[in-house]
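Methods, example record. To illustrate the input and output format used throughout this study, we show the complete record for DNA-binding MarR family transcriptional regulator. The sequence lines were provided to the predictor; the line carrying structure tokens was produced by it.
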Amino acid sequence: MTPNLFDDPRITAIGLFSEVHSGLTNRFAAQFDQHDLSAVEFEVLMRLARSPRRELRMTDLASQTSLSTSGVTRVVDRMERDGLLCRRACPTDRRSSYAVLTDAGLTRIEETLPGHLALIDEFFTGLLDAGQLKDLLSTLRVIRDAANPGAMVGTTDTSQSGE
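The corresponding predicted structure is encoded as:
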């Protein structure tokens, strides 16, 4: 392997992306812990809060998150026991069910969001001017759509979902 490959901008890009993700994830985890949430539980609550009628089919929730179908079932089971979500049977397909955000779940996410947004502003979007942020969002959507084409399943507003 030649030394030039080590300096390849593709390696630099994915390395920087990984470092940013890791750093933000660590900061977010401490803040989520203050609200008795894991990162996955926060992600599920946010997906549901931003969805029409605050609900998603379980399979769509799995597609939009970092969870497998069985993983989303386990998380929803736990969150249902905690009163943050409930399940609703799909009226048109007996094999499907919806995860639905409860009022308690909405309250939990509303309590968590101010601190989360402060961290995002301090360590991510607040470091960019309006043009840089617009370009970043556009770029991230292109990459997301290629890397995770199922991320938009079950959504109706593509300008808002996945952020």
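Annotations derived from this record:
Helices lie at 3-6, 9-34, 39-49, 58-64, 69-81, 103-123, 130-147.
The chain has one domain: 3-152.
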